[in-house]
């Protein structure tokens, strides 16, 4: 407990340092990392390049993706720069063992050292529902767990069984999924209604959490889905002439999130010594959309890539799409994914709230 509160103070002050003096060298903080590694599952919001190695069209390893990433390199991250895992990793790395950017687990060049501080198994296009992942040739959540199993075996070879158990039990597990499940339900193109479909997805999500627990995870942070109706592409498709937020889609997102959060609340006490913490991405992102001036955004209803009305993935490419003159003024990078700057603002709030609950 004492160690935890000392960590918290260090952690909260490192958040301040990070946001006030960007680019400053990290202070030398204790090496006894509270989270030795960050281990990530989910969809395009968390994929750091796995889909580059899969036979899927859900890819973005071409310009202008990655224009704000170190050196302007398209790495397969679904955005202009760093994504959730990197942003969390860089905040935690200020005082802890985790490295700045979180590598993709399918990258064949990963070293043992890379493995020790964590990886992302996430795959763009995947969903909690295995059928969704399959329909997009993405690595399913079950497939991602298989990769975790291989990862644990590799850790054991490097550091032995006891060290591995210790790393796994103390690591931060990040789960960012649902973003491909929910729109399918909202579009009404499935045989179920939104109410029963969201419940069936939650059942998959709950099974996933229990499996993570069986692999040894004890600190699990779960990010809810964004307000889909306010994503630029959905404003175009369902928002009418004014391109308003599509309330059907927003309602489906809210319904899914409320079921996800109550599932986590009821599951958490049944898993010994385990913290399952939910992050409300919906309302955090909505706040940026509704009060853009407060955060220095000028455009919230179009993406920066192309016309911003619909372009994402293959449609956002250097041959057909010019990009907006000032990305910093845009909340969304493409018509589906928030910009690095927007997510960075949200991540700082997320960690400030969630880390104390995970300890
Ligand atoms: C969204 O949900 C609200 C509150 O549950 C409801 O009043 C409204 O009619 C719903 N809107 C749509 C378009 O389904
Ligand atoms: C870009 O947008 C940001 C945020 O609105 C603003 O602070 C900055 O001055 C803009 N830069 C240019 C060159 O217009």
Automatic annotation (TrEMBL):
Database matches in InterPro entries: GDSL (IPR001087), GDSL_lipolytic_enzyme (IPR050592), SGNH_hydro_sf (IPR036514), SGNH_plant_lipase-like (IPR035669)
Keyword Signal on entry: yes
Keywords, ordered alphabetically: Signal
One of the Pfam families matching this protein, by short name: Lipase_GDSL
Superkingdom, natural source: Eukaryota
Entry's transmembrane regions: none
SUPFAM superfamilies xref list: SGNH hydrolase
MF term (GO), any: hydrolase activity, acting on ester bonds
Signal peptide: 1-24
Family from the record: Belongs to the 'GDSL' lipolytic enzyme family.
Protein known as: Uncharacterized protein
